[in-house]
Amino acid sequence: MSERTRVRDYDILLTGGTIVDGTGGSPYAADLGVRDGTVAAIGDLAGASAASVIDAHARFLMPGFVDTHVHADAVLGRADVQEAMLRQGVTSVVLGQDGLSFAPASSGTVDYVARYFAAVDGTPPVELAGGCTVAGLLDFYDRRTPLNVAYLVPLGTVRHEVLGAEDRPAGEKLADLLRLVEQGLDEGAVGVSTGLEYVPGVFADLDELTALCRPAAAVDAPYVSHLRSYDGGRAPGMVEARALGQATGVPVHVSHYRGLAEPLLDHLEEAATAGVDVTFDAYPHLYGNTILAMKALPPQVQAGGVEETLRRLADPAVRAELEARWFPAAEAALGPAIFGYIAGTDYRWAEGLTLAAAGARAGLSFGELVCEVLLASDLAVGAIVPSPGGDDADLRAMIRDDRHMGCSDAIYLGGHPHPRGWGAFARFLGHHTRELGDWTWAQAAWHLAGHPARRFQLAGRGTLCEGAAADVVVVDPTLVTDLATYDHPCQLAVGVRDVLVAGEPVLTDGKLTGATPGRALRRGEPA
Fold this sequence. Notes:
Elements: E1 10-19, E2 28-35, E3 38-43, E4 50-55, E5 60-63, E6 65-67, H1 79-86, E7 90-95, E8 105-106, H2 107-116, H3 126-129, E9 131-132, H4 134-141, E10 148-151, E11 153-154, H5 155-163, H6 174-186, E12 192-195, H7 206-218, E13 223-226, H8 238-248, E14 252-254, H9 261-273, E15 278-282, E16 288-291, H10 292-296, H11 299-302, H12 306-313, H13 316-325, H14 327-334, E17 338-342, H15 355-362, H16 366-376, E18 381-385, H17 392-400, E19 404-406, H18 420-435, H19 441-455, E20 472-475, E21 496-501, E22 504-508, E23 511-512
Parallel strand pairs: 1-4, 1-5, 6-7, 7-10, 11-12, 12-13, 13-14, 14-15, 15-19
Antiparallel strand pairs: 1-2, 2-3, 5-20, 8-9, 16-18, 17-18, 20-21, 21-22, 22-23
Helix pairs in contact: 5-6, 6-7, 7-8, 8-9, 9-17, 15-16
């Protein structure tokens, strides 16, 4: 048989690398063979043939990383976003975060999310703008991008679909909320999410949340929560999350849990002692990123939706009340915050400036600046905000905890976005693993791949073993690092130049290949 007609042993062979398998086990030297989208063999594969060979000498072979909290719902089709993720080794994302996304929703709810969360999620793809189910959203993403997509049922979206943006109890409408949650989980969602500082999630009470967590508990899917309060970095909102876990048995996963390590870790211990299965994600930066309205305005000013909020901000009496009773404290917290995204063209010059500096340049007080920028932007303003508490030592203590898993909480919008979208995972590897030793390389693969894949029931992902999906990241452990900074946030990471998803090269020699093998990851569905 000629070489041309010979049947190859493997589609792709990665030779001479070190396997860091995502289980927490020690790294070991081995070759890895890929066939039909899965890991077909790991070991000494000398003499094997393959259609393509990747020389992995002096590099680590790691399972594709899972970004457990990212806002890419509307932008995952952008090549620059794909490149930013893949250059850090991220191959799977969990969307539907903070209780707000595009399904399950009618066109009216999608319109609301698109306006209210414009500075976070952006404009929905046209295929989703008319409304869709969770099944429809997952079908939309399947094989459309290089990255795999899992999805949480966003309870704020569910609430808006049934109750609008009003501050009122669910009451007799609770059954309608419950039906949408159950349907979303049946269609493959990997959990449910809340954003309890955002509208309308802020208006949900404990009874409502308890009822909506029960279907997730029944299938061991986590309740993923942006807590009601992170005040001072002590996260008093954890008391409510613990109560939900105790009442329903739902696994609790805390979003972007950061601040003072001692009280935060104490909360986790208290929850575990109470029998709650609790985990969390955190990114390796001290500044956060969110919509300005949520941080700068009280919830009652935002009740009723975007139009009502804009009406109130234009009312001199409301503004006078805010100036007297709200803005002084808000200015103390948000003066150092940086404008990341401003939709209004009249104020776009302020992107990259702190609110204090922008106010001085515009000749406006803090309150005047906030109101005018929000009015000019239809509320679509994003801000990079200081940590509610804690420093680098606290951050390091948090990510060393075994319950931690990696996230970026990335927002890929605006002229001056947060650098975490371009560097969080590379920073975990370069700064926290190689330089500081917060993790071993085996622990890094567990925190970034194995642990989240198990938590979100991403079958066949998160580990490198025979039969697993061939989501493989080739990492140079001596080079991998983040280059993105607060001043220059969109610089690509280095040290990851080859990535496979479902056995197809999606990044080769640091460049996108154009392949789109990314799957919709439905809860527990085999790879």
